[in-house]
Each structure stands twice: as structure tokens, then as C-alpha cells.
Amino acid sequence: MRLPPEEKSKIDALLDRFLSSRQSNLLQSTERISYLIFMNRLENMYY
Questions:
Q1: Which has the higher per-residue pLDDT, 36 or 46?
Q2: Domain boundaries defined on the chain
């Protein structure tokens, strides 16, 4: 599944924030972003 360009740019911005802060582990950053996307989509399903 491909993400729309606007969502991809938001994810890229989040990843940049994670990597520029103390969070330098790419795998952990990816897991956090995946969790945020999942929670966002779950919330959108019920509201």
C-alpha cells in the first residue's frame, strides 16, 4: 500500500525529528512512526 504524498512528507518530517533528537536508532523510530500511523487510522475508523 502506498501512502499519499502529503502523509509521506509528514512521516519524513517525524523521522527527521526523531533522528535529530536523542533518538538515533532508526528501527525504533520506524516502530514509533508505525504505531502513530496505526493509532491514527484506528481513531479515524471509530470517529
A1: 36
A2: 5-46
